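Standup notes
- HV: blocked on the assembly model, inputs below
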Amino acid sequence: MFSTRRLRVVAGLAVAALMAVVVASAGTSATNQTTTVVIWADADRVPAVTQVANAWGASKGVAVQVVQKDFGQIRSQLTTVAVETAPDVIVGAHDWVGELSANGSVLPLSPSVATKKQFPAYALNSFSYGTAIKKLYGAPVALENVALFTNTKLAKVPTSFADLEKQALAAKKKTKAQVGLAVQQGAGGDAYHMYPFFSGLGGYIFGTNKAGNLDPSDIGVANAKFLKNASLIDKWNKEGLVRSQVQWDTARDLFTKGKVAYYITGPWFLSDIQKSGVKYAISGFPQIVPGLKSTPFLGVQGFMVTKFAAAHGVESLAKDLVASYMMRPASQLALALANGRFPANVVAGKQVKDADLRAFGKASVGGVPMPNIPQMASVWQDLGAAWVRSTKGAGAIPARRSFIGAQKSIAQKIG
Amino acid sequence: MTSVPIPADTAVPGPSLLARGVGFFSGPVGLGIKLVLLLFLNALALWAIGILLTDEKWLAVLAIAAATLLIDLVYLLPSRRLIPLKFLVPGTVFLVGFVVIPIVSNANIAFTNWSTGHNLSKDEAIVAIEEVSLVAPADGRTYTATPATKDGELVLLLVDDVSGDLYVGSEDGLEPLPREAATVQVGSIVAAEGYEVVQGEDLAGIDTELAALVIPAGEDSFVRAEGLSIAVELQPTLAYDQETDTFTNIETGVVYRDNGEGSYESASGVKLEPGWRTHIGFDNFSTVLTDPLVRDPFVRVFIWTFSYAFISVFIQFVIGLFLAIVLNKPDLKLQKVQRAFLVLPFAIPAFLSVLVWAGLLNDEFGVINQTLGTDIPWLFDPTWAKVSCILVNVWIGFPYWFLVCTAALQAVPQELTEAARVDGAGPLQVFRRVTLPLLLVVTAPLLIASFAFNFNVFNNIYFLTGGGPYGVEQSVAGSTDILISYTYKLAFSTGQGAQYGLAAAVSIFIFFIVAGISAVSFWRTKGLETIR
C-alpha cells in the first residue's frame, strides 16, 4: 500500500500535470491572435465562398475560415451551437429569416442605397422580417424557382393549359407512362413543387396585412376562389395528368427516359437532364384559369450575419463582407454560378450567358417568394398532404374536401 | 481498466482475479498506468472547468471538481475499504453521464418555453429588442464612411450619400469637415488633414471599437457604422427602463411588461420579438393534456404505436423462432451459409433498408406491385400503410430473433426433449410443452425490451411513410405516426416551428408509458421463472 513518500510523488505528478494543462491552454490562446471570420456554407458553395471571402479578407487583414455544413443543418445547428465554434456568417435560404430573427440569431443589415438599387425589390423583401419593424437580415445572392420542362421530341411548348393537357395525355398514351406530367410529390407530399398549380387555381398561403406584412391569421389554402376551381384537380387526377405516387427520383427518370412530355423541376436537376440527352425547352407555366397567373414559388439564397459576430469582435467586418462585398456584381456572379443559380444582383444577372438559367429567370416573373414567417413551419406538411390525398389516383379524396381539411389543420396548428 | 492484460497462466488456480487485480495496480507498472490514467482524467476535468468558469456555470464547476476529487481519492488512498468503490465508480460515472444527466436536462427543458422566438437569455433579448426597434428617421441620412483616428481616438470620416457634404463623426457628435481638408475618391474620403485613415490590415484591429461607436446626430437619433464603409442615421422606437423592467414605445407611450412567459407584452397582448427562454412551470404538461391539437390524436397514436410494436415483435419472434428451429437440424447442408444469409437484413443499416423498401412499395412505380401485377396502395392507403410499416419492421427485426432463438435452442437440455419423446409426446407436443416454455424463460425479458424499443423506432416510420397518409381530419399526426414521430412533428411543424419545451414534456409522458408497460410485463413474466 501507499507510503507517505509515494503520496508525495503522486501529489507532485498531479501538480505537474496541472501546470502542463495551464501552459497548454495559455499557449493556444496566445497564438490565436489573427482575427478570423468563420463562415458556414454548403458543399456546393464552399469553393466559391472561399475564393470570394479570401479576396475580401486579404485586403482587411482578416483570416477567413469556411466550414462545410449540410445546407439544412446550418439552420438547425445555429440555435444549439456553442459560442466558441459558432459562425459569424452563414449561407441560408430567405425563408429561414423569420425563425432566425425571432430567435435573435441574425443581425440586421444596412447595405448602401446604391447597392440596394441593384437588386429586385422582392429579393430584398424576401430577406426582410419583422412583426413591428421590417428589417433586412440577409444579402440575397442566388435566385431559384421551378419551371416547366418540355420534351420537344414528344410535344411542343404549350400555348395554354388546355394545350398542355392535350399534349401531355397524348404523349402518355404513346409512351404508356403512368402520368402525363412529371412533378415530384411522394408519400410525404411536396407543396413547393405543386405551387404553380396551387397559385394557378387561385390559392395563396398567407395574405398580407395593412402594413404589408404576411398575416398568419389569413390562410388562403382553401379560399373561395381556389375552391371554385378545385374540381380541376379531380379532373387531372382522373385523367392521370399528375400522380402523388411520383417521387423526386421517379419524376426525374420519367423525363430523362423520355416517358413524359412535361416536367416541373428546378435548376438542381438541369445537369441530369442535360446528361440524359433529352431535347428540352424551359418555359413558364401557362395560365390555368382566366385571370389567375400560374407562378412558381421563388426561393432566394443569401448570406446572413449571426449574433455571434458581435461576441467574436468581428461584427463590422462581417457586415462589410456580407452587406457590401458579397452584394457586388462580381461576387454575386461567382457565388450564384457556383451551384448553377441565377444571381440576385441585376447587374450580375445581365452578364449571365447561360440560356437555361435565363429561361428559369423568365419563368419566375410574377412569382412570390416562399413566406419567410416562422408560422410557415405549420403549412408545408398539410398543404403537401392535401395534394397527395387528391392526386393519388383511385380512392383519391375530392380536392375541395381535402384542401378544406388542410386549411383547418393549418389554422389549428398555428393557433 | 479491464484492458490491462491478465497473466496468461489462468490454468493454475491461484489468488482470485480481484486480489490479483488489486495487487497489479499496487505494483510499479500498475501504479504507473493508474497514475497516467488519473492524470488524463484530471487534465480533462481541468479543461472542462476552465470552459465552465468562463461561462459562469458554478454548479457544474463544483460538481465536476467534487467528482474528480472523489475519484482521485478513491484510487489513491491506501484503504482496503475503498476497494469495492474502485469497481463501482466507473459504472456510476457512465450511469450519471449517459442516463442521469440526459434525463435531468430533458426534464429541465420540459419546464421551459424553449421554442422559436424564445431562444435567448433575457439580457440578450433586451439587447436584441433594442436593436430591432431602431429605425431610420423620416429624413434620416446615410453616409459613406471611412474609419480614421485622431490622437488615438476612433472617428468616422463621412460623406453624405445625397448632398455630398463631409463630416467627422466622433462620440461628441457630427462636425462639418471642410472640403479642402479632405481628399474624396469615388464618393468616399481617402485622406483628411489631421486624421489618420485606418485601412488595409489595420481594419481588423478596430472592429469592436467601431461597432461600439455611437455618434449623436439629432435630438434622439444617432449615426452608427454598419460594416466598414457605411454609416446610417438611426433612431430608437422603444425605450427600456431598467428600474421597472419595461419597454415603452417612444411615440405612442404603450408600455410592454415582462409577462412571466418570456416576452414583453403590452396590455392589448402585443408581444415584442424576440422573447427569451424561461421556466414556465407545468404549462407544457397542461398543454399536452388540454390542447386539442395535442390531446386528440394522442389516443389514436398511442393505440397504433402499441399495436405496431406488439404485432411487429410478435411476428418477428414467430418467424425468427421458426427459422431457428428449421435450421437447427444438425444434418442440414450448408447450415452456416444459410444462417449467414438470414442474418443479412440485420447487417444492413436499418434506415437504408427502410429507404429501399419505400421504393419497392411505391404504388405505381414500385417493384412489388409491378412484379405481383397487383394494384395495392401500399403507402397511400391508411390501412395498407400500416401493413407496410409492420412488414418492413418485421423484415428488419426477424434476424435478431433468429439469432436469439438459435442460441437459446442450444441451451434446451436434450435429455428433457428425449425424455418427453420417450414418454410418447409428439414433436408438436414436445415443442409446446418443453422447448417453448424453456425458450421463453430466456427470451421473455428480451421480448419486453424489444417491445419497448419498437415503441420508439423513429427511422422506420419517418423514412417509410413520414407518418402519412394523412386523412382529411388528421392534423399533426398521420395514419402511421407513432408516439415518437408524432412528438417530432409537434416539436417541429406546429406553431412557429421548433417547440423544444413541449416536445420534452411529451417525451416525458412517453417515458412513463414505456416504463409502465415494461414494468407490468416484467412483473407478469416472473411466473415463467418458476418453470426451472
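- HV (later): unblocked. The first strand of chain B starts at residue 118 and ends at 120. Residues 292-326 of chain B form the longest helix (35 residues).
- Next: hand off to the docking folks.
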